[in-house]
């Protein structure tokens, strides 16, 4: 009588644990959501901004990809002036003046109304600008990423050179820290030069820098890098901390008077760090790089994206999310443990489940030696077969590539397949190749197997069988390369034969013309005696009882009647097997097409599996390639299910 109450208590305990897990989830979501700062979406500006800065309390200037400098008040454009080339650096000078450096070495100064003023020209690309004392200017420039002629120059208000120091490696930006010109380069060095051009200190950054800015109080500089990190360096060049919230390149930095720093990244995210490196705010705002961070109203910071989108981050309302992030893992672990415990107790609470679990445990224990022996094999299969398949499925829902870290994108990769200009024609080509492969594998290998099987002499039959099987030792890639030479337009056997018999008008560049490329691939391998299919058919004929052939002979059956009524009927399992492997090879195979045509010309010979390979090897789009691969695997899985579902031999078991 004690069973039901105990079971009931177990069920109530399981329900309580599941409720606790649910409450923890709700609390985690609520607390994690509290880390965001008040955020306001502003009216957008024109697209294509590459550099932005605030000139005064109302006006923001932006340099655009179409070589223009525009002025904005809110979302209203108030001015525009052309630039000599694409802007690569921009800074605000005294009296509302703006200095713009270009990729071709021009530095142009504009007044508050965008009227051009002083200008100068350097040899190379301007990589950094910083406003100097008394209206002067500091700039970095050089001829190319791999060059060693980069310089740091100082100019006074009128554009007169004060100093010019060759610093070597490609520079990535410059900032003024009191009278020190602090620059960073592609080698990962951050160095400070005094007014005389002497190096005061040099620090090696953890990652290659992308931008640099000084604090308003002049007590430190901040350096952004290609891995999404921000480093704070003291006046003496000591790295006080480095912090990163994302893996995307930092495009823009904006220092706050409090010592905090706002960073805009390539993925459209904005991160706020306090003076000690703690993350105060981190959120992706838009699917476009943040190219400008400028002071906004009421102490906010405006983030301007390359797409023109604008957002105001109200930094005054930011609360630290550090403690919340540090507890994130603890919450997830506790939630998982409680959920598993609840499910286990619920299973134990049901009598039948408890009995079934006990019986299964007893059976496993009795044959424990067998499980121990197959354990290593199961582990290896799980690690090298099922785990990669599961990872490919996960990656298919991300934008994983070599250009940056993966982010979850849902079914976007699968949606892109609908409009892929290579994939849709590839499906048609795959269907045609599948149909012709079925015809080739069901006819010629079966015919050859029949002819050899009915040879009267056992010795002759052996030699013929061997003659057809021996070519299988030649690697498939060698045969494909031989056929590529056969189809060659100048020295190929096909065109040479046509010329020899007086049919030169029928010569073609067989693999180079859209009208003939797919036909050439279909005809490749003639006479299409697939060794695997031949051996399967021949083995099936050997398994047929000789009494059936003798009975057919007694009844006076013709060879065709015997083939139709006996041979084909008894070879049905082998035919289904060949069809199954033909489907798989036609859907997943692409090696022959890659070697013969590479999918061309155009999309004439493209197939989905080749598109998957191209996305991996050339475009490095692993997420999209995994989506294609998973789709092909799903098609094969459906075929496997249908074969098992409608296989007569499986149904009889």
Defining key terms:
MetI-like fold, 4-stranded antiparallel beta sheet, 653 residues, extended, 18 helices, disordered N terminus, alpha+beta, Methylamine Dehydrogenase, Chain H, 3 domains
Write a brief caption for the model.
With 653 residues, the protein is α+β, with helices and mostly antiparallel strands.
Structural notes for this entry:
- The protein has 653 residues and is an alpha+beta fold.
- It folds into three domains: 39-324, YVTN repeat-like/Quinoprotein amine dehydrogenase (Methylamine Dehydrogenase, Chain H); 367-422 and 606-653, no CATH class; 432-604, MetI-like fold, CATH 1.10.3720.10.
- It has 18 helices and 28 strands.
- The strands form seven sheets. It has a four-stranded antiparallel beta sheet, with no helix packed on it. Strands 2-3-4-5 form a four-stranded antiparallel beta sheet, with no helix packed on it.
- Helix 6 (423-453) crosses helix 11.
- The longest helix is centred in the first third of the chain and has 31 residues, at 3-33.
Instruction: Give the number of DSSP strands.
Output: 28
Q: State the shape.
A: extended
What is the terminal-to-terminal distance?
A: 44 Å
Radius of gyration: 36 Å
What is the helix fraction of residues, given as a range?
Answer: 40-55%
Mean pLDDT score: 84
Task: Note the topology.
Layout: H1 3-33, E1 39-42, E2 49-54, E3 60-64, E4 68-73, E5 76-82, E6 87-92, E7 98-102, E8 106-110, E9 116-121, E10 125-131, E11 137-142, E12 150-155, E13 161-168, E14 171-177, E15 180-185, E16 189-193, E17 199-204, E18 209-214, E19 220-225, E20 229-234, E21 239-244, E22 250-255, E23 261-265, E24 269-273, E25 279-284, E26 290-295, E27 301-305, E28 310-313, H2 322-349, H3 351-366, H4 368-395, H5 412-416, H6 423-453, H7 458-469, H8 476-486, H9 493-500, H10 517-523, H11 531-543, H12 546-554, H13 559-570, H14 572-588, H15 591-596, H16 608-617, H17 622-646, H18 648-652
Helix pairs in contact: 1-2, 6-11, 6-14, 14-17, 16-17
């Amino acid at each position: 009588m004690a069973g039901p109450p105990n079971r009931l208590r177990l069920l109530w305990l399981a329900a309580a644990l599941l409720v606790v897990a649910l409450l923890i989830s709700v609390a985690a979501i609520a607390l994690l959501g509290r880390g965001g700062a008040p955020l306001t979406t502003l009216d957008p500006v024109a697209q294509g901004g590459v550099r932005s800065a605030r000139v005064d309390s109302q006006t923001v200037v932006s340099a655009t990809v179409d070589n223009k400098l525009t002025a904005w008040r809110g979302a209203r454009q108030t001015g525009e002036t052309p630039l000599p080339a694409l802007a690569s650096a921009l800074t605000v000078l005294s009296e509302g003046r703006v200095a713009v450096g270009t990729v071709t070495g021009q530095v142009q100064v504009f007044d508050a109304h965008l009227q051009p003023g002083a200008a100068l020209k350097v040899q190379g690309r301007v990589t950094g600008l910083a406003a100097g004392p008394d209206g002067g200017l500091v700039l970095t420039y050089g001829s190319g990423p791999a060059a060693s002629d980069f310089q740091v120059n100082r100019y006074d208000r009128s554009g007169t050179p004060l100093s010019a120091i060759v610093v070597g490696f490609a520079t990535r930006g410059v900032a003024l820290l009191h009278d020190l010109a602090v620059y960073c380069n592609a080698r990962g060095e951050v160095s400070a030069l005094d007014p005389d051009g002497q190096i005061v200190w040099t620090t090696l950054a953890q990652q290659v820098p992308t931008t640099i800015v000084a604090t308003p109080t002049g007590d430190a500089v901040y350096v952004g890098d290609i891995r999404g990190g921000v480093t704070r360096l003291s006046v003496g060049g000591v790295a006080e901390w480095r912090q990163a919230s994302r893996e995307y390149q930092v495009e823009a930095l904006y220092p706050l008077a409090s010592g905090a720093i706002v960073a805009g990244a390539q993925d459209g995210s904005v991160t706020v760090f306090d003076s000690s490196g703690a993350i105060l705010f981190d959120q992706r705002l838009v699917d476009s790089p943040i190219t400008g961070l400028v002071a906004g109203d009421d102490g906010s910071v405006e983030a301007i994206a390359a797409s023109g989108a604008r957002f105001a981050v109200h930094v005054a309302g930011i609360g630290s999310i550090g403690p919340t992030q540090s507890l994130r893992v603890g919450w997830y672990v506790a939630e998982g443990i409680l959920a598993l415990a609840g499910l286990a107790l619920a299973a134990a609470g049901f009598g039948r489940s408890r009995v079934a679990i006990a019986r299964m445990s007893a059976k496993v224990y009795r044959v424990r030696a067998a499980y121990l022996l197959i354990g290593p094999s199961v582990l290896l299969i799980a690690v090298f077969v099922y785990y990669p398949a599961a990872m490919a499925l996960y990656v298919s829902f991300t934008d994983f590539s070599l250009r940056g870290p993966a982010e979850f994108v849902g079914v976007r990769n699968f949606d892109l397949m609908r409009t892929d200009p290579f994939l849709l024609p590839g499906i048609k080509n795959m269907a045609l190749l599948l149909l012709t492969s079925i015809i080739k594998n069901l006819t010629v290998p079966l015919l050859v197997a029949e002819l050899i099987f009915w040879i009267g002499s056992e010795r002759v039959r052996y030699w013929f069988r061997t003659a057809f099987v021996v070519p299988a030792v030649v690697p498939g890639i060698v045969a494909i390369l031989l056929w590529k030479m056969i189809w060659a337009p100048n020295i190929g056997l096909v065109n040479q034969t046509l010329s020899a018999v007086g049919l030169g008008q029928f010569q073609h560049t067989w693999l180079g013309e859209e009208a003939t490329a797919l036909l050439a691939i279909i005809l490749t391998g003639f006479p299409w005696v697939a060794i695997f299919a031949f051996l399967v058919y021949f083995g099936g004929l050997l398994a047929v009882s000789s009494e059936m052939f003798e009975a057919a002979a007694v009844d006076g059956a013709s060879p065709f009647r015997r083939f139709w009524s006996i041979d084909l009927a008894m070879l049905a399992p082998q035919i289904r097997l060949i069809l199954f492997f033909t489907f798989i090879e036609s859907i997943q195979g692409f090696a022959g097409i890659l070697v013969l045509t590479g999918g061309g010309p155009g999309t004439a010979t493209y197939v989905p599996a080749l598109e998957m390979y191209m996305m991996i090897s050339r475009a490095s789009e692993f997420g999209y390639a995994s989506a294609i691969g998973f789709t092909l695997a799903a098609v094969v899985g459906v075929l496997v299910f249908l074969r098992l579902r409608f296989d007569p031999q499986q149904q009889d078991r």
